[in-house]
Amino acid sequence: MAKIDFSPLSLLFSTTDEQAMWRVKTEDDHRAFAQLVARWEEPIRRLCARMTGDPHRGEDLKQEAFARVFDKRKDYQMTGRFSTWLWRIALNLCHDELRRRHRRKEYLVDGGEDGEGPSLELLAVDDVTPVSRAVAHEEGMLVRQALLRLPEIYRTVLVLRHYESLKISKIAEVLEIPEGTVNSRLAEALARLSRLLEPKLAEDRAPRTEARKPIQPKELLVI
Amino acid sequence: MKHPQREEWGPYLFGEASPDVRTRLATHLDQCPECATEIAAWQRSLGRLDEWRLPALEKEPRPLAPAVRWAMAASVVLGVGFGLGWLAKPPALDAAVLQAQVESSVQAALASSGRPLVGAGAEASAATPDPTAEALAALEARLNRSSEIGLRQVLQGLTTVLQEAREEDRQGFVTLLDQLQEQRTTDYVSLRKDLETLATLTDDEMRQARSRLNQLAARTLADNDN
């Protein structure tokens, strides 16, 4: 889904992301930077929109992500993949955005799915902005709400794997966690999503799912 | 029945499980209705994720490439030039229109004089000269003359332009020759000065050398005497 479609010929003659970023870092090459933006703006916009549930905010966060890439160009290390670095920057911005929303109490904050206290991750579910009201009638609203009800760590792996088609190993690299942790988060994300999207199933299987204490990872990415 | 580890289902559902793990999990699903129900629900949920569609990115129109912009500018300039040239050109003599006008006027004149233009016998027209044919011949001659005059004027204009261009070239050539001559003279003068200076310096050096030789010879003689 998120794969950039380059023809082999253009790939042969075009610079890699890492080469372009190196030029940005060493020479402040604006043309190379524009090349990177053109390649990555759509995946990053999608990621931010999925994580925040707001396409407009996703667009803003995309701009912020590339602005941060340019600001931090001197910190870029050639040893790592540019895409990994970029995903991390964008995810951190999404995390900051969700935390700001939580602080402003713009969104519904009540007990979590598992009865825990006010949760950072319960966001944008009953948001009352005009935009969200207009979007509320769109197809897939239920899915959007269910996804936004997921804790951020579960939503992240699901968005990266399903919508952006990142391999599990790549997700582990981006989030700097073991692959096993990604797998367990994926399983938990799917279980929670199914309970949200199929309430009847959730009722039938409530005893079993309650018996399983979900893992609550605490690590957050900080760049 | 022993159920597989929960985290094994993620790679299985996303097609990243190894072949043996995949086989083992598929076999378990066949034998375990409980897991089959749950994993089927997960698969349905995954399928439903695509129902949430994002609006497409609103791309700004790409600025035109510089070459295209230059081509557009050039075409505009050329278009304006052609337009002005078209407006400023003298009215062309359209032979066909003129001939049609004359023919119609001649026919009208003939009709008013009562002589039929069509239906006259071939013998009669061969025997007596046809005024229409004469008028047409005269008209053709006029047209030829006018086209000749036009052509002559064009040739004259062209000759004038060529002569002017030749004159300009000649004047430019003469100016260039003058400049070259001046440069040559200047170079000659400076070279001569340099040579004179060198000769003077060489002369001085030779005198000094001669005097030193004389002094050396005198000292040598004096030493021999002693």
Give a quick precis of the structure.
The complex is a heterodimer of chains A (223) and B (226). In chain A, 65% of the residues lie in helices and 0% in strands.
CATH architecture title of the largest domain in chain A: Orthogonal Bundle
- CATH top level class name of the largest domain in chain A: Mainly Alpha
Whole-number count of domains of chain A:
2
pLDDT averaged residue by residue of chain B: 82
Q: Please give the largest β-sheet of chain B.
A: none
Quickly count the helices of chain B. Answer: 7
Structural class of chain B: mainly alpha
The biggest sheet of chain A amounts to: none
Beta-strand portion of chain B reads under 5%
Helix-residue proportion of chain B: over 70%
Could you tell me the strand content of chain A as a percent range?
Answer: under 5%
- Chain pair with largest interface: A-B, 39 and 24 residues
Give the total of beta strands of chain A.
0
Distance between the termini of chain B: 136 Å
Q: In DSSP terms, counting alpha (H) and pi (I) runs of 4 or more, how many helices of chain A?
A: 12
Give the CA-based shape of chain A: globular
| Secondary structural class of chain A | mainly alpha
Q: Into which percent range does the helicity of residues of chain A fall?
A: 55-70%
Number of strands of chain B: 0
CATH superfamily name of the largest domain in chain A?
Answer: RNA polymerase sigma factor, region 2, helix turn helix motif
Indicate the mean pLDDT of chain A: 78
